[in-house]
């Protein structure tokens, strides 16, 4: 099933579009299940969306925040995804602290992954927010890494970019979600976005971001025109 691709025309932004869609999906999960398990991503594009979520009409008392990945650094380190999401969103909304489930990056990656994987067993992932790297990585799943084939829910990974020690949800975990939203903004993302959609169109998804496809859920890519610059035009795609 091909993902929905939303190309956001300026002056709107990718973050702005996410701020419109996410609260709706959160409210839907709360209406259906009484709670919402929301998986947050690291990165500058997701961070911009978090800031916009602060003023949205969401019953945060019914939201559980999880993390798609984490760097193996202390929680107060500038490189921590938990710190970024806390500063941008979680410390600014009324989400109970007990409902913020961070990956303990201060532990050795193997231990943090095992601990978080045990926490995630049986958890219904309603919404997963992801970014995509210039190399086609997503969460902390990098091209060619053996962890792409893991049947675990959470794995330790090695990043080519510092901080190198990471913990990441696996494709099995990410693809169990009901809604997955991938955000891509800027010209540096254009090759990865084009490669992802070409691999998917050819039925040979190889890049980590190309292999994100919820088993029983919906996938939406929200990109801006620079990030979409290398995608085939509709008539080229029709050829
Ligand atoms: C991380 C993120 C990573 C990020 C992408 C996009 O821990 O770095 O989880 O997957 O989402 O690299 O980041 P930008 O939006 O900053 O390009």
Could you provide a short overview of the structure?
The protein is an alpha/beta fold and 239 residues long.
What features would you describe in this structure?
This protein is α/β, with parallel strands linked by helices. It is 30% helix and 18% strand. The protein has seven helices and nine strands. The strands form two sheets. The protein has a six-stranded parallel beta sheet, with helices on one face. Strands 4-7-6 form a three-stranded antiparallel beta sheet. β6 (154-158) and β7 form a beta hairpin. α1 crosses α2. The model has no long low-confidence stretch (mean pLDDT 96). Bound molecules: 6-phosphogluconic acid. The site of 6-phosphogluconic acid (6PG) has 16 residues, from α2. 6-phosphogluconic acid (6PG) binds next to α2.
State the end-to-end CA separation. Answer: 19 Å
SSE order, one letter for each helix or strand: EHEHEEHHEEEHEHEH
Which descriptor suits the 3D outline? globular
Q: How large is the share of residues in beta strands?
A: 15-25%
What structural class should be given to the helix and strand makeup?
A: alpha/beta
Largest sheet properties: 6 strands, parallel
Q: List all distinct small molecules, including ions and cofactors, that are bound in this structure.
A: 6-phosphogluconic acid
Outline the secondary-structure elements.
Blueprint (H helix, E strand, L loop, with lengths): L3 E4 L6 H20 L2 E5 L3 H10 L9 E5 L1 E3 L9 H8 L20 H12 L6 E5 L22 E5 L6 E5 L1 H4 L4 E6 L5 H12 L16 E6 L10 H5 L1
Parallel strand pairs: 1-9, 2-3, 2-5, 5-8, 8-9
Antiparallel strand pairs: 4-7, 6-7
């Amino acid at each position: 099933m091909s993902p929905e691709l939303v190309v956001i025309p300026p002056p709107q932004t990718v973050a702005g579009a996410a701020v419109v869609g996410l609260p709706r999906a959160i409210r839907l999960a709360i209406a259906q299940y009484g709670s919402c398990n929301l998986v947050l991503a690291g990165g500058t594009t997701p961070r911009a969306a978090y800031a916009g979520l602060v003023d949205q009409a969401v019953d945060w008392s019914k939201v559980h925040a999880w993390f798609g990945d984490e760097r193996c650094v202390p929680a107060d380190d500038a490189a921590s995804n938990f710190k970024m999401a806390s500063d941008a969103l979680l410390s600014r909304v009324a989400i109970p602290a007990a409902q913020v489930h961070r990956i303990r990056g201060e532990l050795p990656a193997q231990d943090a992954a095992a601990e978080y994987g045990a926490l995630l067993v049986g958890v219904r992932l309603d919404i997963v927010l992801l970014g995509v790297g210039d190399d086609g990585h997503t969460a902390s799943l990098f091209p060619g890494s053996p962890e792409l084939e893991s049947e675990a829910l959470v794995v330790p990974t090695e990043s080519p970019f510092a901080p190198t020690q990471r913990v990441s949800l696996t494709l099995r975990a990410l693809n169990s979600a009901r809604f997955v939203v991938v955000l891509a903004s800027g010209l540096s993302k254009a090759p990865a976005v084009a490669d992802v959609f070409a691999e998917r169109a050819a039925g040979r998804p190889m890049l980590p971001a190309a292999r994100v496809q919820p088993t029983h859920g919906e996938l939406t890519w929200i990109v801006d025109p620079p990030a979409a610059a290398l995608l085939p035009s509709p008539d080229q795609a029709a050829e």
